[in-house]
Specification:
Blueprint (H helix, E strand, L loop, with lengths): L3 H10 L27 H12 L4 H13 L3 H14 L4 H13 L3 H14 L4 H13 L3 H14 L4 H13 L3 H14 L4 H13 L4 H12 L5 H12 L3 H14 L4 H13 L3 H14 L4 H13 L3 H14 L4 H9 L5
Helix pairs in contact: 2-3, 3-4, 4-5, 5-6, 5-7, 6-7, 7-8, 7-9, 8-9, 9-10, 10-11, 11-12, 11-13, 12-13, 13-14, 13-15, 14-15, 15-16, 16-17, 17-18, 18-19
Length: about 350
């Protein structure tokens, strides 16, 4: 069964590089008469300045920053590119394009623009950090470390460099070095949330209760992101403290009613407690939140089967298998029930 336990382990070893990815505004056109530029007072003011000084690269860069904050990244990229076109001497303009392309997982495009930024300013720390992210993403760990060391030689107190080093070692399964770098990141910047989250995950994975404290601190720093609360629930679930786990999942759901992993894990706990009907409701909710979740259909099918609703179970197993033909559990369940695919 592919459950949220697997997701949790992937989260521990995964690279949190795209967490801040913005919505891509597909077909917007970056013209100065675009209605979007008149929709916000700040944008309108900068646009008026651009109309008066159309060759001022700094104004395009300023508007690109404003657009990025508004999650209008297609427009932001076009403004950054215009800034770089008007003034090809500023590394930060090229770096900004590379950064946004990376956020949107255009790795090759990102590398091209960041390389231009470094060529203009070999000491551009932000550009070197972005190159390190690229190498981390492609799992070229020695080159990632090399780029991060370049940053740290210039700025020994750079928390992001230590965070990324921690991620490198985490991917290499060197937990001790990963923790050491995340701790250093937090020492130089106590509110560096990404490192705090990773410390929470790694200590939780080691079954060390200090992990819960880190996760709770991360949640307090940004309560709009309920992942740390969910991770606390996973910690208690792994430890067999099902009541505490359910408490955390409920807290997670109360803050984000569409957080499907919390419903999913709540269902798993309830199945452990032989509360089939309650578990069924949790998996049923997940199928509504995420209709493409094959695991939710399979687990709802398991509930149906254990409640002796065989025809409903077969329908859910078939649905799960059709969604993912590599998923062995529903296929095996259908064979067990002598149902045809």
């Amino acid at each position: 069964m592919k459950t949220a336990w697997v997701k949790y382990l992937l989260l521990i070893t995964g690279v949190i590089l795209f967490a801040g990815c913005k919505n891509h505004q597909g077909n917007a056109v970056a013209t100065d008469d675009n209605p979007i530029f008149q929709s916000d007072p700040a944008l309108k003011s900068i646009t008026n300045q651009i109309n008066n000084s159309p060759n001022n690269a700094a104004l395009y860069f300023e508007r690109g920053n404003a657009l990025h904050k508004m999650q209008l990244d297609t427009l932001a990229i076009k403004d950054y590119k215009m800034a770089a076109k008007l003034d090809s001497t500023k590394a930060e303009y090229f770096s900004a394009v590379g950064d946004l392309l990376f956020e949107h997982k255009d790795i090759s495009g990102s590398a091209e623009w960041i390389s231009k930024a470094i060529a203009l300013d070999p000491k551009d720390r932000k550009a070197h950090l972005k190159v390190a992210k690229l190498f981390l993403y492609t799992q070229d760990f020695p080159k990632a470390i090399e780029e991060l060391d370049k940053v740290l030689r210039q700025d020994v107190y750079n928390p992001e460099a230590y965070f990324l080093k921690g991620m490198v070692y985490e991917r290499k399964k060197d937990t001790a070095r990963a923790i050491s770098n995340f701790l250093t990141s937090v020492q130089v910047s106590p509110d560096y949330r990404a490192s705090i989250v990773q410390l929470g995950l790694l200590y939780s994975y080691k079954k060390d209760p200090i992990g819960v404290r880190y996760l709770e601190n991360a949640y307090k720093l940004d309560s709009s992101d309920v992942f740390p609360v969910y991770a606390e629930g996973v910690y208690y679930q792994t430890a067999g403290d099902y009541e505490k786990a359910k408490e955390e999942y409920r807290r997670c759901i109360s803050k984000n009613a569409k957080y499907d992993d919390a419903f999913f894990n709540m269902g798993a706990v309830l199945m452990q407690q032989d509360s089939l009907e309650k578990a069924f409701r949790q998996f049923d909710i997940v199928t509504k939140i995420d209709p493409a979740n094959s695991t939710a259909y399979y687990d709802r099918g398991v509930c149906y089967e254990q409640m002796n609703k065989v025809s409903d179970a077969i329908n859910d197993y078939k649905q799960a298998y059709l969604m993912d033909t590599t998923y062995k559990s529903p296929k095996e369940a259908l064979k067990r029930l002598h149902a045809k695919l």
